[in-house]
Amino acid sequence: MFLSSTGLAAAATSGVDITATEGSSFTKRVVNLQDCTFESATIDWGDGTPTSAGEFETGNPPGVKGTHTYADEGTYQGSVTYTTDCTTNGIVNFTATVGDAPISAQGRDISPPAGRQFTAVVSHVTDANPGASASDFTAQIKWGDGSQSAGQVTAATYSGGFDVKGTHTYQHTGQAAVNVAVTDLGGSTASSSSTANILAPEPLVAKFTYSPSRPCQQEPIIVDPSGSQGGTQFSFAFTNVVADPPGDFSYTYPLPFGPQKVWVPSISSPADWWSLPVGSEVRIRRPPVTVTLTVNDDYESVSTDPQTITFANPDDVYVVRVGYYFIGGSGPWHPGYAVYYSYLERKSRGPCVLAFRLPLASAFASFTSAPTTLARESSLTTTVKCRRGPDCVGTLYAVAPSRRRPAHQASSAKRKRRRLPYIAKKTVVVPGGSKRKVTLHLTKRGRRLAHTGHLKHVHLLLLMRGDKPHKRKVKVRRVP
């Protein structure tokens, strides 16, 4: 409890009008008190925000002060409910006049080409009100060639503040003075000046080659755009990639851009070949595909005529085989485990000698270098990457490492098909050309290993149809 100053003439309690700036915090007196003992006060600031406690302020006369921030300019009617030894729940009113926060603008030089429409940032706006939004502003751009247009104000992604964008076409090369006028809802204004250096347009040229001239199925095709000119982005479009039903896909690369490896998926018949008995024959087909290169810049694009790629082995016959992938174990009680999987083996060599075992393109997935994390001793998180093309579908296992079994026991163990001793597993679907974080929930045994601190490494095993298993031993990093 505070006591007011003594020896003063008694005066009536009254509100104190205040001024403030939007978005800026302030602490000001809102009540003058009569000569009584202060007990408590609650301030309603009049802008719909929650009330706040008032603080006693000494002086002649004493009073009540408060701290607040008004989000927008305007006039607000506030009130204070107070209690002293003279008055219980007394109410006084005050008026808050809130001014518009100042804004500033800084011009941005641009270098557009003559004769082409462009969109560019011509000014950057800063508002002293941290709660401002892009919709609070309007902008008008004078392009320096006798024309003007409205600017589009957007939030600046990295630098904070707001950017003013405009769309225009200069007809001639040279220089032009760009002037921007910005106004916000409260009436504050700012202006900026910059220079447009108008350049002769650089011609875009789209050319590419590919190799080998007659690739084998599942062999990477190298596309090389070395003959192209200009542009900021290259896109290769492949059509007739999937024969039934028809489909296509594209690869987009920013500059700098060099030769790239591309895999085109094959079509197997029957598609569910991995479920066939061992020794069954499967046809693998790859009809010709067409490829088009498009070169883009900020103003236009140009494309090549389609080129057709014909494969050396467009219709192959393969045989279903079964192999195993051994997860090494050690120690007399941990013999290791064999994981069995199906694969396709070419029936005859043909023109493509190197591609003897064929993993289908839809199974081309791998682990990324991202760390594997352990959260709350209950789940592991890792990242799986799928190469461009169809989606990757498979099962991801986490297997706890074990000690190696003695050599005299290992041979008999390999001959046995044992159940995979995983501590977590999950079916994963990763869209082609992307990577995805996968969270695996630990089994009871896995949680026990994590709790006792023995889960410092795990074997990650990815089993996907038509592809050999992918295995990696990784460190486990604990996270909160």
The rough form would be described as flat
CATH class of the largest domain: Mainly Beta
SS elements, strand count: 37
Remind me, CATH topology of the largest domain? Answer: Immunoglobulin-like
Q: Any guess at the CATH architecture of the largest domain? A: Sandwich
Work out the strand percent. Answer: over 45%
How much is the radius of gyration in Å?
Answer: 36 Å
Could you list the spans in which at least 5 consecutive residues all have pLDDT below 50? 1-9, 358-363, 403-417
Tally of individual helices? 2
> Which class do the helix and strand fractions yield?
mainly beta
CATH superfamily of the largest domain: Macroglobulin (MG2) domain
Number of domains: 4
Percentage of residues assigned to helices? under 10%
Major β-sheet annotation:
8 strands, mixed
Summed over residues and divided by their number, the pLDDT gives a mean of 82
Element layout with pairings:
Blueprint: E1 14-15, E2 18-21, E3 26-32, E4 38-44, E5 52-53, E6 55-57, E7 63-68, E8 74-84, E9 90-99, E10 103-107, E11 118-127, E12 137-142, E13 148-155, E14 162-168, E15 174-184, E16 189-198, E17 209-211, E18 221-224, E19 233-239, E20 248-254, E21 260-262, E22 267-269, E23 281-285, E24 289-296, E25 301-303, E26 307-309, E27 315-327, E28 337-346, E29 357-358, E30 365-367, E31 372-375, E32 379-386, E33 392-399, H1 407-414, E34 422-430, E35 435-441, H2 444-451, E36 457-464, E37 470-479
Parallel strand pairs: 2-9, 31-37
Antiparallel strand pairs: 1-3, 3-7, 4-5, 4-8, 6-7, 8-9, 10-11, 11-14, 12-13, 12-15, 13-14, 15-16, 17-18, 18-21, 19-20, 19-24, 22-23, 23-27, 24-25, 24-26, 27-28, 28-29, 30-32, 31-32, 32-35, 33-34, 33-36, 36-37
